[in-house]
Write a structure and sequence with these properties.
The structure is a single chain. By secondary structure, this protein is of the alpha/beta class. α6 links the parallel β10 and β11. It is built from 14 helices and 15 strands. 40% of the residues lie in helices and 21% in strands. It has 2 domains: 157 residues, VC0802-like (2-Layer Sandwich); 208 residues, Rossmann fold. The longest helix has 20 residues. α8 runs antiparallel to α9 and α9 crosses α14. Strands 1, 2, 3, 4, 5, 6, 7, 8 and 9 form a 9-stranded mixed beta sheet that branches. Strands 14-13-10-11-12-15 form a 6-stranded mixed beta sheet, sandwiched between helices. Bound molecules: adenosine-5'-triphosphate and magnesium ion. Its EC number is 2.8.1.4.
Length: 378
């Protein structure tokens, strides 16, 4: 009989009295992703899945908290039966060198791990021609786990690791169509933070396709999170007001302060306790330390910037791995050139910016934007 064996992060098992809460949440998240039909069984340090479909393994690999999965042949804990099943399993694989590794969760099993490995390895050698044992660099490692039953597998596939989604509270992610913010969202979601996305849309200066692109990114993230709520905030009026009433070189920084304030308002409505962006130190003018200080000063919630110390190439690598890169590089600009100053300030001073903002009716602009959001549930 075949079953899927799911390993989960050791961080979850280290949670002491809270361990059960984390495990239950992980199981709920798995259930939501793989559907009602499958049986999900918790068994000391593993989750076992029965009655699954062809897509189940790939879905499980995207659930945060899952360290890895393997489809195992499951037999009774009897040495002869284990040997027989191991030989059958290996006969279906093409290989020249192998080794056997055993793990005993059930310590009452008569053979210890080494003895069982030797026994099973011997049976394989006896029954399959032209193969040999290589303990250092085998083509195939056959795993045998002795639990309530014996689990035999050789194809262990890694998952994402991390903590169960929603185990760490809720935050608002400023999600643009760029490369960085989806990666930032992925990293925080992987630590268990539930994300609510906010996208600032400058219609008609940014196209519907730019918005569609952000929706596609949210969809991609939802492959990991299970669902995703996206706020689309009308931003044109605010940008026009800033252009009209403030200095050109302060446009970006003031615009970013509005983004933060609006995100904080949405966070309050959502019961979220932090904001998150894809900023990386020094990447562009608005991401110098001085700019970040001024942007940060307008809100009181913590702002998480998981990419702050990362190089662009490394961020791009993650984007490729998680599947957001190809969407992010689609050519629909997220900010029309009229909204980008020719020489943005790289070292803005808070008091100067606050002075400039006196020309704006900030509260009314924020309220108006927040009252006119479009909510998209994915
Ligand atoms: P990204 O690749 O994530 O767009 P970026 O390198 O283009 O980032 P900026 O445009 O300065 O950098 O944006 C910095 C951060 O501000 C983004 O990572 C994102 O979190 C947020 N942000 C920028 N533009 C928008 C937008 N239109 N809607 C929502 N968030 C935005
Ligand atoms: Mg951007």
């Amino acid at each position: 009989m075949k079953k899927i064996l799911v390993k989960y992060s050791s961080e979850i098992t280290l949670k002491g009295l809270n361990r059960k809460t984390f495990e239950d949440l992980l199981i709920r998240n798995i259930r939501q992703r793989i559907g009602k039909e499958a049986n999900i069984i918790k068994e000391s340090g593993r989750i076992i899945i029965e009655n699954y479909t062809d897509e189940t393994i790939e879905k499980l690999r995207k659930v945060f908290g899952v360290l890895g999965v393997a489809e195992a042949t499951v037999v009774e804990k009897d040495v002869e039966k284990i040997c027989e099943a191991a030989v059958d399993h290996m006969k279906k694989i093409n290989f020249k060198t192998f080794k056997v590794e055993c793990k005993r969760q059930d310590k009452s099993f008569p053979l210890n791990s080494l003895e069982l490995s030797k026994k099973v390895g011997g049976a394989i050698l006896k029954n399959i021609k032209d193969i040999s044992v290589d303990v250092h660099d085998p083509e195939v490692t056959l795993m045998i786990e002795i639990r309530k039953d014996a689990y035999i597998y050789s194809n262990y596939l890694e998952g994402q690791g991390g903590m169960p989604y929603k185990s760490a509270g809720k935050g608002v992610l400023l999600l643009s169509g760029g490369i960085d913010s989806p990666v930032a969202g992925y990293m925080l979601a992987k630590r268990g933070l539930e994300l609510v996305g906010v996208y600032y849309h400058s219609h008609p200066y940014t196209s519907e396709r730019a918005k569609e692109k952000v929706i596609s990114l949210a969809k991609k993230l939802s492959e990991y999170t299970g669902s995703f709520k996206l706020y689309v905030v009308p931003f044109t009026k605010i940008q026009m007001e800033i252009i009209e009433k403030c200095r050109e070189d302060e446009l970006t920084i003031i615009m970013r302060r509005f983004m933060m304030s609006i995100a904080e308002e949405i966070a309050k409505k959502e019961g979220a306790l932090c904001l998150a962006t894809g900023e990386s130190l020094g990447q562009v003018a608005s991401q110098t330390l001085e700019s970040m200080f001024v942007t940060n000063s307008v809100v009181s919630m913590p702002v998480f910037r998981p990419l702050v110390g990362m190089d662009k190439v490394d961020i791009m690598d993650i984007a490729r791995e998680i599947g957001t890169y190809d969407i992010s590089i689609l050519p629909y600009e997220d900010c029309c050139t009229i909204f980008v100053p020719k020489h943005p300030k790289t070292k803005p001073r808070l008091q100067d910016i606050e002075k400039s903002e006196e020309a704006l009716d900030i509260k009314a602009l924020i309220d108006d934007a927040v009252n006119n959001v479009e909510i998209i549930n994915i």
